[in-house]
Specification:
alpha+beta, Beta-Lactamase, Alpha-Beta Plaits, 3 domains, six-stranded mixed sheet, five-stranded antiparallel sheet, about 60% helix, rod-shaped
Length: about 575
């Protein structure tokens, strides 16, 4: 046989190779191959020990056989591991190994009666036959039939060997049967141009043949010399076939990955081209548009060549006051950015833009999706507007007024300025409704709202806070007396009668004024004081303003009768 050092080094390299493979690969059989070569390596380590005392030679032989048998059985388990549960396969392998090792190891140290030895062989062959019959799948017709045939024929030969000889080489005979079964199972991967399958089958068969020839006593000297020189060649051939299997699996994995990527690419192209939303692929570094889908071409009106000379920024419309006002009424998008895009026909739309990193033609790129949200934003804006504004007059409602009052007071605190809250109520409005009907009343309220709004700065607020009640917030006042000027201007706007579709109608208002911080430091108190002042103005005769800081009403305004409708209103009031 070859030098043990060379064998140990080569086996160690096999162990290291499969140890690395089983850590990086998901296939179960790599782990079994790693374990199998470790066991074979240990058998050679034990065999390579020289100068063993005579009393320990039998122990050395038993250990060497046990490791070798376990290694070959591990190779067999690896070939069926993907077909059955691992626990069941391992238990079957241990049952076979245990029964064989009990007989062989016992025979190594004791003389077993022939009849008992025959029973032991029958039991072992029965376990092997039952395991093969139950574990091998039915679809493996050829391999399953050959394994069962080996169990029967080889079992009969073993019985004859035990009955006709002293059966001193029963350990080698057991290894030969395991190697033959491994050769048959390994042949299952010998298909098409799969070189590793054929190489492994030949390797296991040659290994079995070499073991079988070693127990034959009538070999010629030249045959014994050839066996000695090439004793380990079949094992290395098996190792070579397994290494080849690794590279073949790697090539198959790459081919499958390439096929998967091709399928994914085709799926991506189909999804990209037929997606209903505009999509682009842009360069990750310089931002140039590389390609656009059909929806982008159709919706934006640009050709592919035109898109390829543009960046995404070229589609965006710069921000302005209108856009800022629009966005101030909406929530932030949950994903991406909300911008305005200009189409080729100069039409401007709101879009929600989302980007994702991808690889395109081997380079980093970004996939851009633009979803037109113009109609949804208009609806959101309308709903938001309706939630914060009065439907009839279009003025802010009580909810928006409270928000703006809080903002006004906070700003006045910082700037150390004054603010005025004015509660405005239309005098005798119920009488107008009862006399002329609600349609006239609504028209009157709209005209009142328009006149009040015309006297309120854009930075201030005029809101409808009740049926015929309005509230104004005026900020940035230097002194409390400035609020009187505001109230006077609001009352003077009603000196002229309200012109409606069927004639003129005289309208007056009563106003209550509260000043921050002179009258109160908080919004709730200011609103209450302003209401109370307004009711004092009404009790004092209406058409006047009253102030929270003064219990007496001021700014008494009397208007001349301007029309028959006005006279009727006055008579009804009396």
């Amino acid at each position: 046989m070859q030098g043990p050092i060379v064998d140990l080094v080569l086996l160690m390299l096999l162990v290291l190779f499969f140890g690395l493979q089983q850590r990086r690969r998901p296939q179960v059989y790599f782990r079994f191959w790693f374990a199998g070569w470790i066991l074979v390596f240990f058998s050679y380590v034990v065999w390579a020990v020289q100068d063993v005392p005579e009393t320990l030679v039998r122990v050395q032989n038993a250990i060497c056989f046990n490791f070798l048998l376990l290694g070959v059985l591990t190779f067999i388990v690896s070939l069926v591991a993907s077909e059955q549960g691992l626990r069941r396969i391992i238990l079957s392998g241990l049952a076979i190994a245990g029964s064989v090792m009990i007989i062989v190891d016992t025979q190594e140290f004791l003389v077993i009666p022939r009849l008992l030895l025959v029973v032991g062989v029958l039991v072992c062959q029965g376990i092997v036959f039952y395991s093969a019959y139950t574990l091998l799948p039915q679809r493996w017709t050829r391999r399953r039939g050959m394994i069962l045939t080996i169990c029967v024929v080889y079992g009969a030969a073993l019985l004859a060997y035990v009955l006709m000889t002293s059966a001193t080489n029963l350990d080698t005979a057991a290894v030969v049967e395991a190697l033959l079964c491994a050769a048959v199972l390994y042949s299952g991967s010998a298909r098409r141009r799969n070189v590793s399958g054929w190489a492994g089958t030949v390797g296991f068969a040659a290994w079995a043949g070499f073991e079988l020839l070693s127990i034959h006593t009538g070999n010629s000297p030249s045959l014994d010399k050839a066996l000695y020189e090439f004793w380990n060649f079949p094992k290395y051939f098996v190792g070579f076939s397994m290494i080849l299997r690794v590279f073949e699996d790697t090539a198959d994995d790459k081919a499958r990955m390439a096929e998967t990527f091709r399928d994914l690419y085709e799926d991506f192209r189909l999804l990209y081209n037929t997606h209903p939303h505009p999509m682009w692929i842009r360069d990750d570094l310089k931002g140039w548009l590389l390609t656009a889908n059909e929806a982008a071409l159709k919706e934006y009106g640009y050709s592919m060549e035109e898109f390829q000379t543009m960046r995404m920024a070229d589609l965006e419309v710069p921000g302005d006051t209108e856009a800022e006002e629009f966005e101030s009424m909406l929530d932030e998008p949950t994903e991406g950015a909300r911008v305005r895009h200009r189409h080729k026909d100069s039409r401007v739309v709101w879009v929600n833009v989302v980007e994702r990193e991808i690889m395109y033609l081997g380079k980093k790129a970004r996939l851009v999706i633009a979803r037109n949200v113009t109609e949804r934003l208009k609806l959101d804006r309308e709903l938001s507007y309706r939630a914060q504004h009065d439907v009839l007059t279009g003025l802010p409602n009580r909810q928006l007024l409270e928000e703006r009052l809080d903002q006004c007071l906070q700003s006045c605190r910082v700037e150390e300025r004054r603010a005025a809250v004015l509660t405005i109520d239309v005098d005798h409005f119920k009488m107008i409704n009862d006399t002329y009907g609600h349609l006239v009343g609504d028209e009157c309220l709209k005209e009142v709202a328009a006149r009040l709004k015309s006297k309120i700065r854009k930075v201030d607020t005029i809101a409808r806070t009740g049926g015929e009640e309005f509230t104004a917030i005026v900020s940035g006042l230097s002194k409390a007396s400035d609020a009187e000027k505001v109230a006077a201007s609001l009352m003077r706007v009603f000196e002229a009668p309200v012109e409606l579709a069927f004639g003129a109608l005289g309208v007056t208002v009563s106003i209550g004024v509260a000043v921050y911080p002179d009258d109160a430091p908080d919004a709730t108190t200011l609103r209450r004081l302003s209401d109370e002042a307004m009711y004092r103005a009404k009790r004092a005769g209406r058409n006047r303003a009253a102030y929270a800081s003064d219990k007496a009403p001021v700014l008494d305004f009397k208007k001349p009768e301007t029309s028959e409708m006005s006279r009727r209103s006055a008579l009804s009031a009396e």
